[in-house]
Every structure is written in C-alpha cells, then in structure tokens.
User: Which sequence fits this backbone?
C-alpha cells in the first residue's frame, strides 16, 4: 500500500463531492425539522437522509483513490468516529438548544473537526492528496447528520435520546460500514462514481431497514415511526438495487453465474 | 472528577493513543509474510487492542481512575500478546518462516542475528523479540490512553458540578453513563489512531522502525485534533 504521487485518471463528468455534501446537508436539516414537527413522518426524514450516506461514500471514494496509506476501512471508521462522537456528546446539550439547533451543531462541529484533521494530514503530515481537508469534512459531516437523524427517529423526536444508549454501538458500526463499503465493493479498474454512489444508495436504504427493524422491536423506541422507516427503506432498497444492477450490467461485458459458461468445452 | 480536569484527561488520552500506534507492529503485506508485523493496517490493529482495553476498563470504572487506566492497559496488552503469539505460531509452523525484522542486523534485546533467516525479497516476517516488546509497549500505551479518555468522560458525566447544572446528565443512570462514555472513548480512539496511519503509510515495525522519527508530526496532529474534540465534549456537556 504505497502513496501514489500523480493523480489517477478521473472521468470529467463526475459530480463534485462538495455539491453532494451541500445537498445532503440541506435535505438532512429539512428531514430533522420534519421529524421534530411530527415524529410519525419519520419515513420522509429517512428518505431525506440517504443523500448523506451518498456524500460520505463519495468522500471515501475520492480519498481512497489516491492510495491513502491507511485502509479504506480505517478512513470510513475514522469519519464515522468523528460524526458519532459529536452526536453522542451533543445529546447532553440542554433540551431547548438540542431540539431546535442540534442539526446545525452537529454539522458545524463535525465539519470543523473533520476539516482540522484533514488539514493536519495535508499540511503537517504532508500527504499529497488534493482537497484532503475538504473530502475529510465531507465524510465527518455526513456521518454526523445521518447518525443524528437515525437517533432521532428511534427516539421519536429526541424525547428520550439517552434511553436508547444500547443502540449507539450498532448505529455507529452500521453507519461506518455503509460509508466505507461502497468504494470497497466497487474497487478495481472499472470503478466509476455513478456505480459507487448507486451502491451507496442501496446500502443507505439497507441500513435504515435494519434501524427500522431495531425500532420496531425495541420497547423504548417508538413503533409507528420505526414501522414507516422500515417499509419505506425496504421499498427504497428494492428500487435502488434494481437501478444499481442495471448499471452494473451496463458496465460489465457479461454477467455469468457459477459453473462453466455456455458454449465452453469442459 | 472536575470537568476541566476531565477535559484535559480526554486531550492527554487522545495524544497517548496517537503515540501508541507507532509502537504496534502492523503491516498490510504481513499477510503474505513479506514484512514484519501483524497482517493488518496499523490503525485497525490499534483500534482492536484499544477496544479490548476499553472492555477491560469498563469493568473497573467504579474503582477509580488509576485502576481503570491500569486495567485498560493490561486488557489491551493481553489482546496484542495473544494476537502476536498466534501470528508467530502461524508464521513459524504454517508458513514456515522464522520471526525476523528487516531494519536491524541483530535484535537489540536478544542479540540474535536477523539477516540469515530473512527470505529474499522480503522485509522480514512475523514478530521477533524487539518487535514483540514494542507491540506490548504500544498496547499498554493505547489501552491506558483509551481508558483515560473513557474514565475522563465518565468522570465528567458523573461529576457533582455537572449533575447540579445539567438536568439531562442528572437523569442518566450509571449504566447509561458507562455506555455513552465508552462510545465516546471509542470515537476519540479511532479519531486519533487513524492520523498516525497517514504517517506510517500502512506499515511499521514498532519502535525499531525508522518511521519513529516522524513521531513529532503525529504528536502535533493528534494534539490539535484532541484539543478540538475535548473542548467540544466539555462545551456540550457542561456549558450549553
């Protein structure tokens, strides 16, 4: 695993991650306030928070394309660690401030800490990755808003956030996996942004399905919002997997299942 | 624990975590026995031993700060010792290569020769004595640093000064405080152990590796990152 000096060839038509990030933040904030207004509308919030995972996966993709020196998993875990730590510390902020301003707090603090760590890596450690600070804060900020909204959905609008403390590890690890895996899953010569981000959407829907199941089963979590999340996530997952699979078939020469291909002597 | 002391504890713990990664022998190409160290990335291995330390610390959190820190350090060291022992057993009896390091001719502790036992085209394989000792030092540091963060966050959440002013903190039970402190400690641990991995570029032999000279870069980066996260935790829990 060595650091590459010259940047690899990147397709021109790619969407800049910063645009994805801005969209994800706006939809995330709207999703939070919808949840605050009526917890039963959690299914709309959960749709609005999927772009956060897409932006985070885009950040991982950008950083890891340059041969980071650490693994893809490390950078995913790192970004989610910052986001999760910020959210888990924010739940102790007094209720009035938390209910109204928590998305802004987690986004700003997550972004600032991500930027500072990326800046340290860029300037002090002298990593030669363009836009490292920017891409770092994209991962941390996205993870922070995603974890905040998942926590809010499970606790029905932040009423008893600390009562769900035993779900923190699964929220953390689940988010880390869906942020780091899309790039790892598509890694290889033919990797492109569309397919990676499409897989990120599939995984975002999949992980919110898991959180929906957790919410339905937990006695402390609210039932109706979690059920809505579960149903919408399952529908989203099916749609996204179909789209992703179509894209995979476009990009590959042929898809064959196990065994000898037809027409080959054996 | 006084909240300001706790905040300083979080910062110091974070910096110690950053140092620990330099001592833990890990290398991705170790999977093919092509270099000295356990076959994974340094940050992921450090995370593993740090989380093992946090588990150990969690059981002794009510016994006070020194016992928690020592317990975390020992739990972490135990994990890395088991990992290194099994990695050495697999390399010696499975792959059929002797534990040697590529960066020195004679082992600084035992004085045993290294070069004759090294396969051509590799940088060494598995963990010779000096590397193993370095790994244990690293795990002790990492476990201690992680537990210090953990104990500090727990101390902040159970501090009488904070409980008096924050109804949210006052409402949580000790079990909740331990879990949330553990999650925050794991977060601070991961935040700090990935930064040195940028310096190490995926491979280190521990304290005998020339990359130890880059330790100041890690120190500065981890200090900056820890200061920000420490101050934020303090502000979130105590101020607003």
Assistant:
């Amino acid at each position: 695993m060595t650091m590459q000096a010259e940047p690899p060839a990147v397709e021109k038509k790619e969407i800049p991650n910063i645009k994805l990030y801005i969209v994800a933040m706006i939809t995330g904030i709207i999703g939070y306030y919808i949840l605050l207004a009526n917890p039963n509308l959690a299914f709309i919030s959960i749709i609005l928070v999927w772009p956060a995972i897409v932006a985070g996966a885009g950040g991982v993709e950008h950083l890891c394309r340059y041969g980071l020196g650490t693994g893809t998993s490390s950078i995913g875990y790192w970004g989610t660690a910052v986001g999760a730590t910020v959210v888990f510390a924010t739940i102790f902020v007094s209720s009035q401030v938390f209910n109204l301003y928590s998305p802004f707090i987690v986004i700003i603090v997550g972004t600032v800490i991500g930027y500072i760590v990326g800046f340290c890596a860029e300037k002090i450690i002298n990593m030669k990755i363009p836009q490292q600070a920017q891409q770092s804060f994209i991962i941390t900020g996205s993870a922070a808003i995603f974890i905040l909204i998942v926590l809010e959905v499970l606790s029905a609008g932040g009423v008893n956030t600390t009562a769900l403390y035993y779900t923190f590890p699964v929220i953390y690890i689940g988010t880390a996996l869906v942020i780091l895996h899309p790039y790892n899953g598509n890694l290889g010569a033919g990797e492109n942004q569309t397919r990676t981000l499409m897989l990120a959407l599939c995984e975002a829907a999949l992980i919110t399905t898991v959180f929906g199941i957790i919410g339905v089963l937990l006695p402390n979590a609210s039932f109706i919002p979690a059920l809505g999340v579960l149903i919408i996530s399952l529908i989203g997952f099916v749609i996204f997997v179909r789209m992703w699979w179509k894209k995979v078939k476009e990009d590959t020469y042929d898809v064959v299942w196990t065994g000898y291909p037809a027409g080959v002597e054996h | 624990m006084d909240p300001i002391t706790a905040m300083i504890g979080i910062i110091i713990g974070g910096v110690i975590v950053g140092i620990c990664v330099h001592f833990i022998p890990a290398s991705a190409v170790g999977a093919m026995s092509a270099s000295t160290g356990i076959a994974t990335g340094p940050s992921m291995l450090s995370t593993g031993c740090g989380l093992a330390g946090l588990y150990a610390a969690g059981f002794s959190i009510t016994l006070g700060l020194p016992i928690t820190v020592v317990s975390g350090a020992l739990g972490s060291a135990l994990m890395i010792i088991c990992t290194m022992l099994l990695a050495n057993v697999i390399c010696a009896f499975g792959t059929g290569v002797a534990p040697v390091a590529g960066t020195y001719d004679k082992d600084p502790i035992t004085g045993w020769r290294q070069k004759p036992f090294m396969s051509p085209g590799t940088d060494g394989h598995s963990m010779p004595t000096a590397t193993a000792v370095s790994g244990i030092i690293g795990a002790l540091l990492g476990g201690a640093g992680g537990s210090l963060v953990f104990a500090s966050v727990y101390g902040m959440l159970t501090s009488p000064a904070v409980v008096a002013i924050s109804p949210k903190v006052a409402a949580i039970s000790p079990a909740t405080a331990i879990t949330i402190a553990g999650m925050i400690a794991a977060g601070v641990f991961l935040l700090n152990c990935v930064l040195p991995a940028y310096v190490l570029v995926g491979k280190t032999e521990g304290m005998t590796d020339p990359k130890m000279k880059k330790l100041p870069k890690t120190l500065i980066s981890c200090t900056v990152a820890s200061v920000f996260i420490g101050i934020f935790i303090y502000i979130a829990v105590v101020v607003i």
Remarks:
- The radius of gyration of chain B is 19 Å.
- Strands of chain B lie at 26-27, 35-36, 100-101, 123-126, 203-204.
